[in-house]
Design a protein that fits this description.
heterodimer; A: mainly alpha; B: MetI-like fold; 79% helix
Amino acid sequence: MDSRRTTASVNWPGLSVFALVLAAWEAAVRSGTIAFEFLPAPSAILAGAVELARDGILLRDLLHTLLSIAIGWTIAMIVGVVVGLLLGFSPLARRYGLASIEVLRPMPGIAFAPLGLLLFGFSLQTELVVTVLPTVWPVMINTMGGIANAPPRLTDVGRTFRLGSYEIVRYLLLPSALPSIIVGARISLGLALVMAIVAEIVGNPEGLGYGIVREQQALHPEFMFAYIAVVGLLGVILNAGVLAITKALWPWTAPRQPA
Amino acid sequence: MKPSAKLAALGRMAWQLPSPRGLLPLVAALVLWQVLQTGNSPYFPPPSAWWNGLVQIAAAGKLLAACIATLKTIVAGLALAILAGIVLGVLIGTSSRAARALGPLLEFCRAMPPPAIVPLAILFLGYDERMKLTIVALSAMWPILLNTSSAIQHIHPLLLDVSTSFHLSPFDRIRLIIVPSVVPAILLGVRIALPLTIVLTLLVEILTSIEGVGALMITAQRNFQSGQVYGLLVLVGLFGFVINNAFSIVQAVILRRWPPRSVQA
């Protein structure tokens, strides 16, 4: 991409509104216009973040959260894609499995936190239970949908060209399901972040989620806000990262940018 | 698939539940569990113990009140989120300048995992019903807001030209052009927000022990009442299932009145 286009696509009004909100917040706290006991100014939050980073504790918590997201998401992707492919290719599996999945799927992931705590105590395993179970569904359903909803004409085309079943699957059906699978993977990644934070808040005293609670209970609002900001940034970066990677690998699957 | 086609498919699918034969693996697993688990395992109690656990809580008179409290928060939080999401979404969507100016801010708010703001809300609002509602409404609002504003931005310009050349009154313009274009997108936003409201309600209840099913779950876990933990897990699953399907029915009814348009910008 040439640099002219990148500079043109930077959303200056948007960024300045962002900056303006922060500036107004800073001014309001400094001048005492809004004086909540627990509302630090953005500059204080930034200073808090720097202090946490210097301690090394922020990096440690960030790495823990990233690690559990990576493990949880990988497990969810493997299970989701494998079961999704099975369901997509086999009408029999759909007939004798789909209703069970539809009953289990709306189960809120957080509900598994007490179960995880019961089985594993405050540990990474509990965090993974809470992270993996809800993140499996989007990948599974989208993989199944991508295969099962492939245009029947694709198979006909393959037959006309005298392709074997393996080639039809490998060169026609899988590529046609790929965009749907990738959407599922993206939804799952976002969900994995949310659930990892949930798990760290209630089930595993480590990582960014626990950092927020820890600082809230210690009445250190500037550290708490710093953790929240890092979590928000992580969300933005993860989403943008997956979009960029999929766009680089499979350009045709990228969602169209809204005008 | 085009978004509108996807919406149309959603509307058609809404009432089609998969065949009950598909429940066989689940039922078989539960029966096996019951038959094979003879001892009173502290970790994997048999399904009959789950039922007994629920009966215990009900006998103590806590189950119904907790269910009602949780349901009330979910419904009220969702209602607030829908209201706020639509109003703000319409305001932002009607001005492309506002949409662009607020874009990064909204993007950040949306990317923020909602559970992260729970400790914040506890700090500011304390442990009460109001805090529970605020968190649920605030987090569930984003998908509705963003879907509404993007749907308004993507109304086909031709449709707006039509309304101008027919000299439609502002009321008719909203009724005939804007509402039908936006309703399916709003429903999609609510569908995304729905599981979020359930998760957040339970999270707040687990964290703060404010009355509700989440508080019952965490109490059961702390007392190592494994039967109750599993029983409540099933109950919560049922909650999710019922709420999801109830919404599917509402969605199907509304989409019949305002079917998704196939016109694309």
